[in-house]
Automatic annotation (TrEMBL):
Pfam families: DUF883_C. Residues 87-110 form the DUF883 domain. Residues 62-89 form a coiled coil. The chain crosses the membrane at residues 92-109. It comes from Pseudohoeflea suaedae. Keywords: Coiled coil, Membrane, Transmembrane, Transmembrane helix. InterPro entries: DUF883_C (IPR043605). This is DUF883 family protein.
Length: 111
């Protein structure tokens, strides 16, 4: 990882220890402030990227769901047409089958 060159170099020693330490502390505070700002900016960029990716993925899932629902509706329409055709051809058999299913459901519901 490359280090960014800073325009503010560390303060030079003047011989006064107290003043030197205060200057170094002030310099460190400024550097920490810059670092915190850089981290904050990086976090904002990452958050925007994640949000954009989530939006794109959400749109893909929505489209895929709509296609699946459309396919299921078509299959249901085909099944309905097939069942309707069988009922028209053999109405008594359909009534007997419906009664049988109702009887089984009643048995299961009683338990």
């Amino acid at each position: 990882m490359a280090r960014a060159a800073t325009s503010n170099s560390a303060p030079k020693a003047t011989g006064d220890i107290s003043a030197d330490m205060e200057a170094q502390i002030a310099h460190l505070k400024a550097e920490m402030s810059k670092l915190a700002e850089s981290v904050s900016n990086a976090g904002s960029v990452i958050a925007k990227d994640v949000k954009g990716n989530a939006r794109v993925r959400g749109e893909q899932v929505r489209r895929q769901s709509e296609a699946t629902i459309r396919d299921l509706r078509e299959q249901l329409d085909e099944i309905e047409a097939t069942v309707s055709g069988h009922v028209r051809e053999r109405p008594l058999t359909a009534i007997a089958a419906a009664a049988g299913v109702g009887f089984l459901v009643a048995l299961l519901a009683r338990r």
